[in-house]
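PROTEIN DESIGN WORKSHEET
SECTION A - STRUCTURE
LENGTH: 294
TOKENS:
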């Protein structure tokens, strides 16, 4: 039984007494239900300030979000969000690891409280979740077989050579590939970075795309793959941010207030540098309100 169910069970006897009394006064049960709901409801920000527990949703990515050997939450997004939430009062965190494409539906279903993966702020996503301001400015990368035998350096190269491109389901690179003119039948969508590397390694795809640190981490110990160099992006950078459920505007405002002073600080860089984050990845000043409209 979770917290809300325990609270409801304690309220039930009181509710029955109030119902009997209000019925005698001719007051509707609808008003009673509204009263009971207000007693049991509580914002996420209140829960954070009261010490949690806060459920953190993410998809495994060796740079941005993953679990360690002892089930601890690691990666840029995870350690950053936990540090910021601790500054607001949180002390307990619960990891919820799942496939990338399931993150937003799971949040809408109440499975967790915040998404920490490198989820770019995009207008379609803004309709389903609330984003903080960005915590990075990120360009992508292309993984290719060692030696880059097909001389792939951009998405237009893939289009013009009739090659197969692989990326993660729900990744920004799906839309980028489509906008570049790569046919849908030449765009392979897989679960994540490990699967992107596997598809290129096996020859099922000629090149794979995704966020730079994610791609780099996925092939770190693989001598059969490399990053296309140079890489020539034909698109603007992506802006990852933390995602919260709709209705949590106060939580997002509190996080943004912290991000304003924390991003780029010595404390922050020290926390995330082990995952490859450096000052070149700091936000460039773009605001989520504008990114949600673009």
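SECTION B - SEQUENCE
RESIDUE ASSIGNMENT:
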């Amino acid at each position: 039984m979770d917290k809300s169910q325990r609270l409801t069970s304690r309220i039930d006897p009181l509710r029955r007494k109030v119902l009997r009394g209000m019925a005698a006064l001719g007051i509707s049960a609808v008003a009673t239900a509204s009263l009971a709901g207000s007693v049991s409801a509580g914002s996420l920000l209140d829960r954070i300030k009261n010490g949690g527990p806060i459920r953190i949703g993410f998809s495994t990515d060796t740079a941005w979000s993953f679990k360690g050997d002892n089930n601890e939450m690691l990666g840029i997004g995870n350690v950053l969000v936990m540090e910021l939430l601790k500054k607001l009062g949180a002390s307990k965190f619960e990891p919820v690891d799942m496939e990338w494409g399931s993150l937003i539906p799971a949040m809408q279903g109440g499975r967790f409280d915040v998404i920490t993966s490198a989820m770019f702020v995009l207008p379609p996503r803004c309709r389903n979740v609330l984003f903080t301001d960005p915590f990075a400015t990120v360009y992508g990368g292309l993984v290719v077989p060692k030696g880059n035998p097909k001389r792939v350096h951009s998405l237009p190269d893939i289009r013009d050579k009739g090659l197969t491109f692989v990326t993660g389901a729900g990744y920004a690179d799906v839309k980028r590939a489509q906008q570049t003119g790569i046919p849908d039948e030449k765009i392979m969508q897989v679960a994540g970075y490990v699967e992107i590397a596997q598809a290129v390694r096996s020859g099922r795809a000629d090149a794979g795309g995704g966020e730079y640190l994610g791609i780099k981490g996925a092939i770190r110990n693989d001598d059969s793959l490399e990053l296309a160099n140079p890489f020539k992006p034909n698109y603007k950078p992506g802006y990852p941010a933390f995602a919260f459920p709709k209705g949590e505007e106060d939580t997002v405002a509190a996080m943004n207030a912290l991000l304003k002073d924390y991003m780029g600080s010595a404390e922050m860089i020290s926390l995330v540098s082990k995952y490859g984050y450096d000052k070149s990845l700091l936000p460039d000043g773009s605001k989520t309100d504008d990114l949600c409209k673009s």
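SECTION C - NOTES
The two ends are 43 Å apart (CA to CA).
The chain has three domains: 3-41, 46-134+241-291, 140-227.
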